[in-house]
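Hi Q.,

Before the meeting this afternoon, I wanted you to have the fe (ii) ion prediction in hand. No need to reply - just skim if you have a minute. The sequence and ligand are here:
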Amino acid sequence: MNLLLLSDIHYAGPAETARGGDYEMEAIPNARTRFLARAYRHWFWMRNPLDRTPQFHAFLRQPIEADHVIVNGDFAMDSGFIGVADPACLESARICLEALAQKFGDRLRLVLGDHELGKRTLFSNRGNMSLESWKLATERLRIPSFWQINEGRYVLMGVTSSLITLPAHSADVLPDDQMEWQKLRVNHLDQIRKAFSSLEPDQRVLLFCHDPTALPFLAAEKEIRDRLGQVEQTVIGHLHSDLILWKSRFLAGMPVLRGLGPSVAKMTAALHQAREWAPFKVRLCPALAGIELLNDGGYFMANLDPLGRWPVRFEFYSLPR
Ligand SMILES: [Fe+2]
Ligand SMILES: [Fe+2]
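Predicted structure with the ligand bound:
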C-alpha cells in the first residue's frame, strides 16, 4: 500500500494574505534584531512566507493516489502567533484542510503542529500557546491529538509534539493556562504509553510527530523506551529542510545557552538533547515549499508491505517553487 506524506504547508487564506509577508519583521521591536532576522529570512529561511501558498495549489494539481495521506502539521501561516484562535489563521487552516479533504477524502490523517496552537516568535516575545486554539484545532478543525491505524504488521501512529514538549515550552504558555495544558499532556502521554505497551512483539511502528524536540521526552517513558526497537521510522516535520536536520545532528549535545532570550534557550535545549533522536530513526518530511536557500520542497511517497517482508520504501518527490 502507498502512503503520501507531506508537512508544513503554512497556507495563507485571504485574511492572512492581506496582512502581507512582513508580519514577523513588524513584530520585532529591536532594529538590530530586525535586521539580522530579515537577513536570515531573506537568504536562508523564506523570503516571503506568502510564497508557500501557491506551492500548495501546485501540489493539489499533482495527480497523486495513496491509501493514506498523512499531513505532519503546520497547516496555516500563523501570522497572529496564537494559532487558530486568531480568526485569520483559523480561516487559513480551514481552507487548507477543506482542500485536502476534497482531494483525499477519508484517507486523510492529520497531525497537530505547533503553529495550530500558537507559539512565541523566534525573534520577538509575541505570541503564546493558546487553549482556545487547542479547542478550535481539535474540535472545530477535527485534528486529532492522537491516532493509530493498524495495517497488517504495521502500526501507524500520530502524536502531538506540542503537548509532549510542554516542559521545554513553558515560556510559551500563559501562567493561568499551565494547569490545563499539564492535564492535557498527562492524558496524551497516557494514550501513547498504552499504545506502545499493547504492541505485539512482531508489530512495527511508523511514528508521525511534528517536532523532534518531543522525542527525548517520549524516550523518557519506560513503556515507550522498551519498545523503541519496534519503531521502524519516525517521520518529523517542523525543521522544513534536511539542511536543518543535518545542522541539528551536527550541533547535537551543544550546551544550553541561557541569557540570550527564551527562544534561544529553548532551541539550544532541544539541540542539547538531539542525540536522543537516534533510536527513533528520524526522517524529515520537508516543508512543502522547502527553504529559500535550497528550494528543496516536496513530498514523500512511501510503499508499505502490510506483511512486513521489507522495510517501508520512501521516495521523495521534489516540487520546486
Ligand atoms: Fe513549520
Ligand atoms: Fe512547526
